[in-house]
Specification:
Oligomer: single chain
Distance between the termini: 15 Å
Order of helices and strands: HEEEEHEHEEHHE
Length: 171
């Protein structure tokens, strides 16, 4: 993925926070830069399984202690349980294969089992969607920050969801 400045990323996160305000959401981030906490999301609805730069406890450290995120992970799992058989949009932004067992594969599994869900995967190199969930997914080959800044609103996603049955891939 393209590298963006801290200011660009924060503005991106703030726009997403504004878009989900008042909605039933949860944020899972693999980023350790802690910017997500500055963006306006409810902190009780954020989990960062790869750790935090502020605490110095990040997954790339030799002494990573995962117990720091486990209470939030449990809250996330409870939230996920409450999404079953409900309409759900899983917005996956820049999730590649660094830690696929944390987000990418579970997102695909959730989309497979929740027939009312839609997976939106935006990634510049790895937007692929498994065939089993393709008709309920949207694959966008783009840098997520650039894509979001060009669309500036969710109407693009709404239009894309209407076209998902044709199996379109947006680039």
């Amino acid at each position: 993925e393209k590298h963006h400045t801290r200011e660009e990323l924060l503005a991106f996160y703030q726009e997403i926070a504004g878009a989900v305000k008042g909605k039933f959401y949860f944020v899972v981030t693999l980023n350790t830069d802690d910017l997500i906490y500055e963006a306006g999301f409810d902190p009780s609805l954020i989990v960062a399984p790869c750790g935090s730069d502020r605490t110095g406890n990040v997954i790339t450290n030799g002494h990573y202690d995962e117990s720091g995120y486990l209470p939030q992970w449990k809250a996330y799992q409870t939230w996920l349980g409450n999404t079953l058989n409900r309409e759900l949009v899983i917005l996956e932004l820049g999730v590649g294969f660094e830690y696929p067992s944390v987000l990418r594969f579970p997102d695909e599994k959730m989309t497979f089992f929740n027939q009312k869900s839609t997976l939106v995967r935006i990634h510049s190199e790895f937007p692929q969607i498994p065939k089993e969930i393709r008709e309920r997914s949207l694959s966008v080959t783009a840098d997520p920050v650039d894509f979001w800044s060009k669309s500036r609103n969710l109407s693009l996603y709404g239009a894309a969801f209407n076209d998902r049955k044709e199996g379109r891939t947006f680039m």
